[in-house]
Amino acid sequence: MIKIEVDQSICCGSKMCVTLAPEAFVLLDAGMAGTLPHAADSPFDLLLKAAKSCPTQCIALFRDDEEIKLY
Ligand code: SF4
Q1: Mutate to test the pocket of ligand 1, among 4, 11, 46, 49 (most ligand atoms within 8 A of CB)
Q2: Can you list the domains of the chain with their CATH numbers?
Q3: For residue 40, what pLDDT band results from cuts at 50, 70 and 90?
């Protein structure tokens, strides 16, 4: 099972994740990204691309509670 976390304390609101995986991420009113309810159902390659493209590296992906190494 995939789990997605966004460390909003370092999100800069670039919206890169929303552009790459719009079914998983949303830009909140506060100007930082959050995840949508069915984010984990998004194609894994898009989640991976979004996480790797995040300029502040604040997206973490987990499979079965184990963090996936992105870099
Ligand atoms: S790509 Fe990263 S920094 Fe940009 S909005 Fe998404 S989570 Fe925030």
Answers
A1: 11
A2: 2-68 (3.30.70.20)
A3: very high
